UniProtKB/TrEMBL annotation:
This is Enterochelin esterase. InterPro entries: AB_hydrolase_fold, Esterase-like, Mycobacterial_A85_antigen. Coiled coil: none annotated.
Length: 242
């Protein structure tokens, strides 16, 4: 039975107008127990923000980690996405990818930092994403090495174009990644084809490590669904926030 303390969550909703995407973008912002504007907090930025909150139960897990495991309180920012254009924004070959990266780094991050006491160093910003959300998190970090160094990827969709971008890098020693993929993801149908996600993640891990990135990597029984990723979220958060 879930402790009622975990369910008393403070989640604030915002909308920002993006000049890069020429539309509004919704944010969900989780504030930890005992939130105090005079303090400063590490921050986790989640792609597919609505799903991280609804299906990943990230706010409930955050309360549990903070209240019961003495993890330093942190803020979570979920960035929502229109699933109809998700691939175009998240995949490096998408026609909205550059605009989304610019929106994320030049509009969303400054908005959050102007309105909430989040820390502004690469060590205190964590990027998190599932599937293509994991991929775009890595691409954002590669484009803005000054801003990001920690990434959680849940079954990252690291297609060949992503691997080629990683291979073009020479030094990724600034990066630290927590990667997990399900062993039942070897024949997964996406909107751009059928992929072996285990192979994609193994190859990506190798490319990253050869370039100096620190990678914690797991292959576990699981499918390409939130039922699998939800169970992996607490350990992923612990890794970077303990």
């Amino acid at each position: 039975m879930t402790d009622d303390r975990y369910l008393k969550r403070t989640v604030v909703k915002h909308e920002i107008q993006s000049q890069f995407l020429n539309e509004t973008r919704k944010l969900r912002i989780y504030l930890p127990p005992g939130y105090n504007e005079l303090l400063s907090y590490p921050v986790v930025y989640c792609q597919d923000g609505e799903e991280f909150f609804n299906f990943g139960r990230i706010a409930t897990f955050a309360n549990q980690l903070i209240l019961d495991e003495d993890i330093e309180p942190f803020i979570i920012v979920g960035v929502e996405v229109n699933v109809k254009v998700r691939t175009q924004e998240y995949a490096p070959f998408g026609n909205r990818h550059e605009a989304y990266v610019a929106c994320f780094t030049e509009e969303i991050i400054p908005y959050v930092e102007q309105n909430y006491p989040v820390r502004r160093t690469a060590e205190d910003r964590i990027l998190a994403g599932d599937s293509l959300g994991g991929s775009v998190s890595l691409h954002i970090a590669l484009k803005r090495k000054d801003m990001f160094s920690k990434i959680i990827t849940l079954s990252g969709a690291f297609y060949i174009p992503s691997q080629e971008i990683i291979a073009s890098e020479s030094d990724l020693s600034f990066l630290s990644l927590y990667m997990v993929v399900g062993l039942q993801e070897r024949d997964y149908q996406t909107d751009t084809g059928i992929y072996d996600f285990v192979d994609l993640n193994r190859r990506t891990k190798e490319l990253l490590e050869k370039r100096g990135a620190k990678v914690v990597y797991f292959e576990k029984d699981g499918s390409h669904i939130w039922g699998f990723w939800q169970k992996e979220l607490p350990d992923a958060l612990r890794y970077f926030l303990l």
